[in-house]
Every structure is written in structure tokens, then in C-alpha cells.
Design brief:
mainly alpha, 3 helices, rod-shaped
């Protein structure tokens, strides 16, 4: 029989596994690194989403400027076309009422959409943090 091995303060055993005390000692550094990495992931995801949203918003504003001028040309054309069969003042009034109705309908639809709007949350990062919390608690699916 071989003699029992003495207890030593080695970081790893002969088979390459770390001791419990070494793992507990590394835990604060691992948690700090995990939190730091999660914050970096949130930052990267937010930058990508906001950059895309910013470019899209700029393009929409450019399109709206051209649409604004085109709309006035169209309104003038409709008024002039109606004035061939109606008095000009009545043609202008009809077009104005139609434009007002369209504006009210679009405004109401827009308000309802804004209320339903999704907040710009970095969902992947939030899910990752939730998975990390579950793994820390020892529940759920996680890599070992």
C-alpha cells in the first residue's frame, strides 16, 4: 500500500484540475471579468443599433424634404384641375379639407404606433445577463 498523500497548498493536482481554494480565489476576478464583458457587449450592441437608426433617420428626413416639395406641387395641380369645373375658392377648400382629414388620420395612427413602440433595449445582452445569473445560481442551461 502506498502512503497517503500529504495535504499541500498546490494550485493544481496531478491530473491538472484546480483545487477548490484556487477556484474560490479566482471567483471574484471571474465575476468582475464577466460583468465587464457584459457591459462591453451592451455598448457594442447599442452602438450598432443606434448607428443604424441614425443613418435610417437621416435618409428618412431627406426623403421627407423632397416629399414636402412634391406634395405642394401635387396640391397646386389638384386645385388647378378642380378649378376647371368648380370655382377656384371651392377647389382650394375641398383640397384643404381632404388634406386635413389625411393629416388627422395619419397623426392618430402615428400616435398609436408610438405608444406601442418597442424601447431600444439591447435584447441579446439582456438575455445573456439573465443566462449568466441563472448559471451563477446553478439553474438552467449553461456551459461548464
Amino acid at each position: 500500500m502506498s502512503a497517503p498523500r500529504p495535504i499541500t497548498a498546490r494550485a493544481t493536482s496531478e491530473d491538472g484540475k484546480k483545487s477548490v481554494f484556487t477556484l474560490i480565489g479566482e471567483l471574484p476576478n471571474l465575476i468582475t471579468a464577466l460583468i465587464r464583458d457584459e457591459i462591453e457587449q451592451i455598448k457594442r450592441e447599442a452602438v450598432v443599433r443606434l448607428k443604424s437608426a441614425g443613418i435610417g433617420t437621416g435618409l428618412i428626413v431627406g426623403a421627407l424634404v423632397f416629399l414636402y416639395f412634391a406634395a405642394w406641387v401635387f396640391v397646386a395641380t389638384v386645385i388647378l384641375g378642380l378649378s376647371t369645373v368648380l370655382p377656384p375658392w371651392l377647389s382650394a377648400l375641398i383640397v384643404a379639407v381632404l388634406l386635413l382629414i389625411i393629416a388627422v388620420v395619419l397623426g392618430l395612427i402615428g400616435v398609436s404606433r408610438v405608444r406601442k413602440g418597442v424601447p431600444p433595449v439591447p435584447q441579446e445582452a439582456v438575455d445573456s445577463v439573465k443566462d449568466d445569473v441563472k448559471a451563477f445560481k446553478g439553474v438552467g442551461h449553461y456551459d461548464r
